[in-house]
Structures are given as structure tokens and as C-alpha cells.
Amino acid sequence: xxxLRKLLLFLAFASYVQGSEVELDLSSxxxxxxxxxxxxxxxxxxxxxxxxxxxxxxRVTDSPDSVWSPLSKDFSMKSFEIHQRSGHNxxxxxxxxxxxTPSPSDSKKEETLNQNTTESLPEKVVFSNLYFxxxxxxxxxxxxxxFDVLKDEMESLESTLDLHNFSDSLFSVSHLDDRVTRELxxxxxxxxxxRVNHNGDLVWSSGGTELFKSAALSYNTMNKLVLxxxxxxxxxxxxxxxxxxxxxxxxxxxxxxxxNKSFAWETVNPTFYEEQIDRLRNxxxxxxxxFPKLTLDLLHLVNGSVSExxxxxxxxxxxxxxxxxxxxxxxxLGDALLTVVKSGDSLLWVSENKKSHxxxxxxxxxxxxxxxxxxxxxxxxxxxxxxxFFGFEGGEWxxxxxxxxxxxxxxxxxxxxxxLAISDLDFCTxxxxxxxxVPVTNFTALDGYYFDKVKELEFELWNSxxxxxxxxxxxxxxxxxNFISLLIEDPLSNTSHLLYYQKMSLAPFDTNNELVWVPISxxxxxxxxxxxxxxxxxxxxxxxxxxxxxxxxxxxxDLNSFPKTKLDAKYKNYTLSLFRHKDVPMVRIYxxxxxxxxxxxxxxxxxxxxxxxxxxxxxxxxxxEQPSMAMLMxxxxxxxxxxSYYSRVRxxxxxxxxxxxxxxxxxxxxVQDHKYFTLDVGKLAPSNKFTYNVEHLDSPPTAFVExxxxxKVGKLVDGSExxxxxxxxxxxxxxxxxxxxxxxxxxxxxxQSTHIYLNHYHKVPDGSWKGVSTEEYFRELDxxxxxxxxxxxxVDLSDVFKGEKRVYYEFVDSSYFxxxxxxxxxxxxxxxxxSLYVNGEPLYKFPRVHYLKEVIFFPSNAPKVxxxxxxxxxxxxLALD
Length: 881
Hints:
Blueprint: H1 2-13, E1 20-25, E2 34-41, E3 44-51, E4 55-62, E5 65-68, E6 75-84, E7 91-99, H2 107-113, E8 125-135, E9 138-142, H3 144-155, E10 157-162, E11 171-175, E12 181-187, E13 191-198, E14 201-205, E15 211-219, E16 225-235, E17 250-259, E18 265-268, H4 270-290, E19 293-297, H5 299-303, E20 315-322, E21 325-332, E22 337-343, E23 346-350, E24 357-365, E25 371-378, E26 386-393, E27 396-399, H6 402-409, E28 414-419, E29 428-435, E30 438-445, E31 449-456, E32 459-463, E33 469-478, E34 481-490, E35 495-505, E36 515-520, H7 522-536, E37 537-541, H8 542-552, E38 574-581, E39 584-591, E40 596-602, E41 605-609, E42 615-622, E43 629-635, E44 641-649, E45 652-656, H9 658-668, E46 675-680, E47 690-695, E48 702-707, E49 711-718, E50 721-725, E51 734-740, E52 745-751, E53 756-763, E54 769-772, H10 774-788, E55 793-796, H11 797-802, E56 809-814, E57 822-827, E58 834-838, E59 841-845, E60 852-858, E61 865-870, E62 874-879
Parallel strand pairs: 1-4, 10-13, 19-22, 28-31, 37-40, 46-49, 55-58
Antiparallel strand pairs: 2-3, 3-6, 4-5, 6-7, 7-8, 8-9, 11-12, 12-15, 13-14, 15-16, 16-17, 17-18, 20-21, 21-24, 22-23, 24-25, 25-26, 26-27, 29-30, 30-33, 31-32, 33-34, 34-35, 35-36, 38-39, 39-42, 40-41, 42-43, 43-44, 44-45, 47-48, 48-51, 49-50, 51-52, 52-53, 53-54, 56-57, 57-60, 58-59, 60-61, ...
Region (Disordered): 99-118
Signal peptide: 1-19
Keywords: Signal
């Protein structure tokens, strides 16, 4: 589909090389030439003008004033958007298509590419943007910063804040752990609060451009709002969007409001506000001393009249909405203990001793009208919660089982139980991977499922409450280590956290020495991960390995005698493979999955040491009585794959660069046991003895033949005639052979350890081969090249459309979304001396080293837009008059 994308780009770009030129009048745009769309962006409206295919906009006006005109035909309008709102100046956004300008570094490439063309052709289209504002019936340019400022102000929603019943859609609400100042309200972005009320009474109103920013709400012991600390903000009056250096900033001020005995709101000074705050704190402290134990009556919550009751002043109170139900959460403030929970005359729970208390209460008002309550009960701050569940329906309270409670709360989701001893993969996936070097088994619930309970046989680790869901379980069961972490999601607060457990014995408290799962902290879990890593870590000692090979094998460093199986159980931490690389015997070590290579050393000399979160893929070194080079591939803490090279220099291992490593490798590599063969230049064909490639350089096609590993060219012939033989050179020489055209010239390359020799040959008119000098060789080559490039291969797109076929191309004629047909011409081979014609007229002649790969032309019966893709991915775009 790549050519389709290219075609769309060319068709769009054709609007400024072949389309009709029109003017866009913003006050009366013609739908014949433009697509006009209007949509809403908050309180603002946006009108977008997009030129139709083939339309080039040479000017934008707002009758009679000019808005924009292109500097040249390198620019073409993509779209123009106008943002409008009553009381605001209109702003505009002009999106442009622009021809790219080649960089100075590409100038030589551009010159070579177009040496046979009459003009410089663009390589790609880029996009740019211009911004405007309308003032006094004229349009003025803007920077993007000023456009964004005006756009935000235009799309801001003006609203009123009711402190008695506020929504978190326009404000972020923070519930504070303070019995006096309980909530902090912050205006969200694009909200413009110009009035603040409380239960119908006016608290504050903007007299101009001043806006609400934040408010801290304080309550008395009767749960009535009595104090408000309000921060107001005003935009600077010096802001000028037509000045590039001007910036928009805001100036804040703070006001304090107090609800007097007449229940009217009045402005007070900071001193009076602080005195009232201190007084309220003293009242709450006195109440806590008089009533250290609290009673919670849920009657008002059940009846939906929480805002009218004074009962909840000693509680932190939050309201949320989740999946169509209202959720209310209460927890005692300060040191007070909640010991009684009731609803009118119905007693739900009462503390049975001095320590037991209720940490918090959640009440769920379901969409069907029923109510559910859960209580978190404990005896101390460190105890895990024990839950009790109640349901209210038909005017009566009843206790709920955990299963019934979960069913009522999660009736549209599928909960499953994960048993670590019997993992059912029907509802989850199981995978094993390494975390910090330690193998971890990962259980992940499938989409639409969640783990309601995690257990092992009859022992329960975790049970869900209050919408909490376990989606992933990470289990480490390695040797004597058995611990687990659970990823718990809380959709009500849109957060997640980890819980940790370890399977251990409670001895000496448990005389049966039974292993049980107990909760642990994150610090203990981290310590267990590190201990497990140390347990599975091992060192690979190069000296120990060499000693072992020498003691176990009579010919230890003969590659053919080395065992092809794994080493014995002493080396159970890794697997081993032996191979040759450029005739150098190599050993590669792969750590097994359940192990971790900590150090690569030779005796007491540590060559490489792993770090935290490193993972080694393999270690390799040359197989010799004293290895002299090594390489390690590993991933670091950022999961970036790295390779380290080491070489033995004067008996010491040093880290080296990749280039130095290659030099060391070349120094120890050997070439032996080569097989010689005869190469016939007149009968070249694919073979396992050599590689054969035809290259198109700045000369006629050239075939390069290089012997495969283990082979050498012993004789070069043309039928029965010998051109060259290796008998005249030392047998240890390696050879590579290259020929030009197969009929005129050839040359043989011979390399020794320090020198390279070239033998040149030329085929004389009588058909025999003779050796020539380098100067004569290239003189004959230039003469042949001139003859070769004198011809011309013509491809006419009109003939292609009519059905003309060639062996080196394939043609497809198609249509796209009802548009006129376009043609795709793909070249399956490189064609020399190619010239492209249209209807008998020459269009483009390709220079040397430029080979056509694909042509896309539209319409195919009478091309107007043509795309040429040539070798090296150089993309040309042509337009026809």
C-alpha cells in the first residue's frame, strides 16, 4: 500500500503544479472550490476551509482586506480554520504545504541526480503553519504562543461554583485529613469561575476580569461551612498578542469569607480568619476529649440527606460515583475511635472490647435503589482489616455473605479464583520471565476477568473487597525461596499498589513447623529478591574451565576431539557450544534460565562483573590453551543490548573497542585446508563454491566472484583457454576474482598478509586473452564503456497503457475510490540507458548509476502526475503541462 500513500501525496501536491488558481474569501467561500465544515469547540465555533482536489489558492482575503498570499508556488494552502466566539476577537490557523529545500550537504547529490534534467525537482513536501487574529476588521499575524493563549481563553467555560454542592468536572477536589479545613477546590484548566454561591447565597462575584482560582473550606462541629479562604487571579492588562515579546501572566490575591450569625457571607481580614480557625480547632479538641468514642448513624446517608445533618463533623467524608452507583466513604478524624455503627434504630455493629473499632465505612447506593454497607474492623493500627457486610432493601437491614456482597457490587464483571497450586489457564495467561535476574512466574487475568481471590489449596492469601481487583500475580518459587507479589487495582481512586506475601514457617510459635503465607513489606520483598539472585548466581572461571578440559580429554585443544554434548553436572549453570568463526575455534557459554552469571573471571582476576538488572545473553572466547579474546552480550538496567570486548595483553585482560577486538581476532585467525576449483568466466552460475553478484557501478554491469569459506580459485579459464593460474603464486595466498561484461576484460586480486596484488587481462580482437598493465586495462575499459552507453532503451507510458510488454517490467492499471485510473509500472531488473517517454515525447533520460524501480502515473490514459522511484530510494516527482 506504500504506492497508494505516495499517490495521495502527489495528488494533493498537484494542486499547486497543475490545478486551477482561485482566491479564498473568508466572508463568502464558494463550495465549488472548497469543502466548508463548521463544528463546536466548547463555547467557541470553528469553521474550516479545505481546497478541493486540483484547486490552488493564490490568495486568502476577508473582503475587502487581504489576509495572506503565497510568496511563491512553493507554498500551497492545506486548510484555513477560523475560531469565533461572542465577545472575543476571531483567530485563524492557516496550514500550508511547502516544498522542501535541499540542505547544503545534499547539494552534490542533488546536482548529480539532476544533471540531465532542466530543473531541480523537489524531494518531499513538508508542512508549516501560520496564525492570525482579527482586529478592527483587519487580520494580523500571530505567533503560535499567542494563538494558543487566545484559543484557550476563547474555549474556556464560564461557570458558577456552588460550595454547597460542587462537581469535580470543573474543579479538582482534595479531601484533607483535617477536621476543620476539610476540602481544597482548584479550578481546572479552561474553566472560568466568575461567581461563587453557597446554597443560593452569594459569596463572591467577579467585577471584571478577575477569576476564581482555589478555595479552602472549613466547617464547625455541626458540620456547617463557616469559613472560606479564596484565592482569586487576574490576567495582566499589559498583554498584547500583536507584540511577539508580550506574555500572558496572572496576579493572585486572597480573600477571606465568614458566615456570620445572620447566615450571611461577609469579607473578613486574615487575622479574624485565623482566630476563627483556632477557635474551631479548640472546639473539636474539646469534643474529642468529651467523646473519645464515636457513634455513626447512617440514616441520613441512606435517606440521601447527608448535606442537612450535623452528625458527620468528626469524620472525613468523601463522595464518588463509580459505574452508576454513588459511593460515600467515612473515617474518624484525629484519635477518636468509631465503636458503634447504626442506622436509626437498627444497630449494625458495636465494639465488644476496648480495642476493637471501625477504621472506616463505605456506603454504596446502587442504581436499583438498594444500599450496601461494608465496615473495616480492627483492634490496632497494624492489624489487617476484618470486614462485615450489610444490605438495606425494603426498609430492612440484613447481613451479607462475602460472596453475596461481591455479587451485588460486581454483577457486570467476571471474578475468578487463582489457586497457585492449580492454575487454570482458561481465564489467565502464565509466563515466566526474569525480573532483576530472578525467574518470576507471572499470572495475568485475561480481558474481562480479574482475580477475586488468590490462594494456595486451602490457604487464602488475599480476598477482594471494595472494588479492589487483582490483575497480575508475580510468584518466585526457587529453591528455598517462595514469595509473591500481587498487583491490586483500585478503580474507585484510579490507583494501583502491590501487596507482598512470603511462605514461611512460624516456628517456634508453630510446633507443627507448617509453612504458611504471611504478609511482608516491600523492603522484605526486595531483600528476598536480592537473596534469590545471590542463590542462583555463579562465576565462570576461565582457568577452571581450561583445567577441566585438559584433565578430561587426551587431546584437549583438538577441535574434532572435543565432546559434542553438554559438560557434566558440575557445570549445570550453563550450556556450551563449540564453533568456528573464520577458522578460529570458539566457545560460547549460555547461562541457563534459572541461573545468573555474576562474574566472568580467570582465577582471582575478574574480567567482567554483572550489575543490578543486567542480563547476560552469552559469553564467548577463543578455544585455546590460553584464550586471548572474549566477548559478552548483555542487556543493562534500561534493557539496552550491549556488547563488551576483552583481550589479553601481556598476560592481563583489558577491555577493548570493537575495532581493536577485530584486529586481535585477525591476528589469531588461521586459514587452512582450502579446496581449489576452476572458474570458467563463460559459464558463471550460482554455486556453493563462490558468491556471484552483478553490480551496476559507474561502468557497464560488473560481475564479482568471491570464493566461499574453505575454497580458493585455482585456475581461471574461458572455455579451453587458461587466463590465470594460482600455480604462479604462493599457495597460502587467498584469491578473489572480478570480471567486467564477461567478454572484454577481467582481473584477479591476490592478497597476502601485508600486500595485495592485481593482475589485469584483456580479450584481444582475435579472441584470446592477454595480460595488460593497469593503465591499458582502464583505457580499454573506458573505450568499452563509451560504446556500451551509446544506445538508448525507450519506455513510453502511453504504449505501456495500451498493452506493450517488456521482460523487465510489470504493469498494473487500477482505480482508487472512484478516481480516474492510475498506473503502476514496476521494474523487475536494472535497465541501462533508459529514457522515459509520454505519447512519443521524451520526458526523462536516466544518467549512469540511476535505475528506475517504479513509476506511478495518473491518470493512466493521459498522465498529468508522474512519480519516479529510482535506486538508492531517491524519489522524483514530475508534473506535466
